């Protein structure tokens, strides 16, 4: 399947929900879609929960209609991009604090997408190491001085 087919799945899903939106293809490989809508807040939901659910639905339909085991990433109104930038900024501040104090720094619990972005960002810093700790909704990152 292609990004155009994933875009079509997302559009049909939004149409069935009665939501008017414009869907753009940001990248073909991996497939990444961005959605713009007057109903962005409704589609994002509290803490991005509705966005994650919508993305899961699109991915389920996408995988059932193709033999492709690929992944369709979706952002709505720049929510994910802004959230990752915010989380990475906090992580960088805590990494600096860990280096200055020598004490482990714990970030607030976050979803897997956000944790991955922090691990990737701080992997470039040879002076700190990151680890995910906790279970389920309490899963968070600990930043330690190397």
Q: What is this entry, summarized?
A:
49% of the residues lie in helices and 21% in strands. It has 146 residues and is α+β, with helices and mostly antiparallel strands.
Structure notes:
The protein has helices spanning about 5-15, 40-45, 50-65, 80-100, 110-125, and strands spanning about 20-25, 30-35, 70-75, 105, 130-135, 140-145. By secondary structure, the protein is an alpha+beta fold. It folds into 2 domains: about 5-75, GMP Synthetase, Chain A, domain 3, CATH 3.30.300; about 80-145, Ribosomal Protein S8, Chain: A, domain 1 (2-Layer Sandwich). Strands 1-2-3 form a 3-stranded mixed β-sheet. A 3-stranded antiparallel β-sheet has the order 4-6-5. α1 (about 5-15) packs across α3.
Unreliable stretches, pLDDT < 50, 5 or more residues? none
Q: What is the CATH architecture annotation of the largest domain?
A: 2-Layer Sandwich
Strand segment count:
6
CATH class of the largest domain: Alpha Beta
Shape call: elongated
Share of residues in helices: 40-55%
* Fraction in beta strands: 15-25%
Order of helices and strands: HEEHHEHEHEE
N-end to C-end Cα span:
44 Å
Radius of gyration: 18 Å
The CATH superfamily of the largest domain bears the name K homology (KH) domain
Instruction: Give the oligomeric state.
Output: single chain
Any idea of the CATH topology of the largest domain? Answer: GMP Synthetase, Chain A, domain 3
Determine the number of helices (DSSP H or I, runs of at least 4 residues): 5
Q: How many domains?
A: 2
Query: Biggest sheet, in brief?
Result: 3 strands, mixed
Helix/sheet category: alpha+beta
> Could you tell me the mean pLDDT?
93
Strand order of the largest sheet: 1-2-3
């Amino acid at each position: 399947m292609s990004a155009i087919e994933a875009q079509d799945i997302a559009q049909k899903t939004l149409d069935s929900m009665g939501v008017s939106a414009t869907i753009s293809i940001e990248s073909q490989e991996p497939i990444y879609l961005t959605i713009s809508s007057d109903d962005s807040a409704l589609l994002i939901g509290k803490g991005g929960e509705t966005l994650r659910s919508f993305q899961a639905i699109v991915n389920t339909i996408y995988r059932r209609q193709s033999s492709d085991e690929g992944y369709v990433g979706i952002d709505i109104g720049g929510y994910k991009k802004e959230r990752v930038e915010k989380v990475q900024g906090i992580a960088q501040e805590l990494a600096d604090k860990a280096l200055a104090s020598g004490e482990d720094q714990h970030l607030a619990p976050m979803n897997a997408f956000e944790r991955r972005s922090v691990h990737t960002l701080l992997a470039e810093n040879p002076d700190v190491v990151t680890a995910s700790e906790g279970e389920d909704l309490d899963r968070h990152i600990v930043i330690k001085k190397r």
